[in-house]
């Protein structure tokens, strides 16, 4: 699978994550929500894989399962040669040092009762031996400087920082254990445009300097295109298309990807050739009761009987990249 | 790194013209100041009062019986609050009572708080059947009248200050457990707890560093509201003879003693009653004000 | 310019009381909304764009916020000077508003049909039956499938996009002549966002009403807006036809915002965002409040506060509050 022959850093195979649905009164389990329903992908060392999808697509649950915040119902997550879904808690904790996460909300993801320095040093508190206690203060200040914060602000509390600065603090915390993989879960979505661009640049610099691998989750396709080497498009718990960034944006073959791309607001629509706007009707289906066959068929303009019967596999189509559609075809402009 | 360093040296404050704007003076400042002053005075009296005005539980002075407030006793000293039916100075009793009431209140809250917060945190953090079991236990506790429990323990172990503390702690831990539990439930799903978890933290670290600090403010607020109730409950139990023994004259004991003399010597019951009421009201005021300031969500406790 | 504008805001200032002192959330903002046009009010958080809308709608959070000066003239009537009761009725009847978060704007314990119908019962004295029928009609109008069946559902039974449609239905109930939408699509997914923008644009055309779209997302409004007003730190910094503003930005802030947005086409270059962070409104910089972040800043910018003015070589309607606006426009020509 991996093009360059070296072993992938992260390898996810047929991952399922389900949540029990409970009745309101007796809390009995009445069904299951399949938030992630059979996802497989590889993450190569040093690359950025963008994960896009709308709310309910399962992209955040996928990330939380990879990092161990949710328990996988089935499937495997192999990180750096270690299989995590069957690992013991101690092994998991060790592996977690190498996988860190940047959260969406810079307000709620920082402990309000700890100072910036303490937030960064917390990782060393949990993993004694990474950095000796006597070095905590200096190392924390270095990290703050690294992410563009003033080291002399180490004694300030999160509420004394602006939103963008808080997100930088979250990044510093994620870097404290020198991870190999950083999962960015909508890491720039809550930020103002100008701040968002600053943080994107910071993430790019850190990747270049530290050799980080990113799993970059976002709903904003422009941002994903900007940062990603490859892009996976998720819909209702499944990956529907997976390709190099260039391919996804220039030659999408799945109708959902095409619709998603056509809906992206462009700042200066008049300066581009007129785009074909595909306006989808309806909403993402309920993950508790997904449609049979292809999960996108209820909103798809190409759907036929076959789509309701056979679930399309994510495999190379049209001699191009993997796409999970029986009727994969290039957008009109390319035909 | 040129443009990534641009936040450096900037003012940290966010641009905040958001509608959620705090008014200039924090809510309840006046109430807090007043109530704290009254409570502080009581604490001073409880600590230094008995030392200034000695109290001897077995001394009697028949000549000084039932002197009204402001009288001179036989040995020429001034009985500001008058004397009781055995000629003891009421002021000394009230001072001693303040010490007992406040000591019982604080001890009870420490014990109840310890039990309640532990139960609440365990129930909220581990959830599932443990949560169910512990919270049902709390429900059972609430339906069991504390007077009955007090009679039970007094009959079994005899009246003593320690037993009063135990009885009151048993009847009061539930509030702490509920507050701690709800705070844990709110906190444990916050992003920063997940963030700490992804660093590899175990439960104990998460509870100690993320959850317990979040419980501190609401638990303190509840403690302030509860201490008034506890002091009142102690007085009631003592009044009924189920609380502190008559050798340690808590306000309840003194009020009970004066019951038979209400017609001739109103002051024996009335003065400790007023002292009690003022303290309880002050704690109530302080608790309400603290709640308004720190945790408006606790409104209907 | 012959016809009088529908809404004319002049020199509007809104003051907020905060823990740290008074803050001018909106500071001397003037703009017009013409009959039937779509005006986009753009800015980042803290720019004062939502507060401006709240001031127009008379829903400033009390007592913290108050209008400190200026006039808001709607169809020739000064909303700040007239009898509050008449103004309140006017705001229900002729000016309506749609908010960002449809779930918290809808009452969770009432059926949606009842909530939409309430507009007719309260303002038009319609009977229950007539109000319900009107509610169904409106729900169809805003594209809610099976409206007749869903009229008795509760808000939580609808998806985010459908809830926003319900909010729009309520806003449209009394056929307003001015609709203010405050971040109407921010909480929604991209595909739903596109649906709602299309719906708003269609409704505006059919109803002939004027639309004010408040958003932080420059892309979302590009297709539908006629004119744009950019706000920064409580001030209007640039205004003009949307293409004028986007293609020939005359304020360095506008330019910086445009450069901060990653492209969907074209080469992937490093972004060149605005430096630094928005200022603290409690301690605004001297002169032009943008100067600490501005590549063009000179001593004049640190001393003099620029006013919104016409830019040499640009249409009269295109105005910017920058001492160096001509330079900024010229800089763009060099680059392209």
Fold and architecture overview:
- The complex is a heterotrimer of chains A (335), B (301) and C (336).
- Chain A is 29% helix and 22% strand.
- Chain A is built from ten helices and twelve strands.
- Chain A has one domain (10-98, 179-334): P-loop containing nucleotide triphosphate hydrolases (Rossmann fold, 3-Layer(aba) Sandwich).
- In chain A, strand 11 and strand 12 (322-323) form a beta hairpin.
- The longest helix of chain A is centred in the middle third of the chain and has 18 residues, at 193-210.
- In chain A, the strands form three sheets. In chain A, strands 6-7-8-3-9-10 form a six-stranded mixed β-sheet, with helices on both faces. A four-stranded antiparallel β-sheet of chain A has the order 2-1-4-5. Chain A has a two-stranded antiparallel sheet with strand order 11-12.
- Chain A has 335 residues and is an alpha/beta fold.
- Chain B has 301 residues and is mainly alpha-helical.
- Chain B is elongated, with a radius of gyration of 25 Å.
- Chain B has one domain: MetI-like fold.
- Residues 1-24 of chain B have low confidence and may be disordered.
- Chain C is of the alpha/beta class and 336 residues long.
- Chain C has helices spanning 49-57, 84-93, 102-105, 112-124, 128-141, 147-150, 160-172, 190-207, 218-222, 242-247, 252-260, 299-303, 325-335, and strands at residues 7-18, 21-33, 38-42, 65-74, 77-78, 95-98, 178-182, 210-215, 227-232, 235-241, 309-310, 319-320.
- In chain C, a hairpin with a 2-residue loop joins strand 4 and strand 5.
- The longest helix of chain C has 18 residues, at 190-207.
- The model of chain C has no long low-confidence stretch (mean pLDDT 88).
- The A-C interface holds A 54-55, 162-165, 192-198, 200-201, 204, 219-223, 225-226, 249, 259-272, 277, 279-284 and C 44-45, 145, 159-162, 189-195, 197-198, 216-220, 222-223, 243, 246-247, 256-265, 268, 270-274, 277-278.
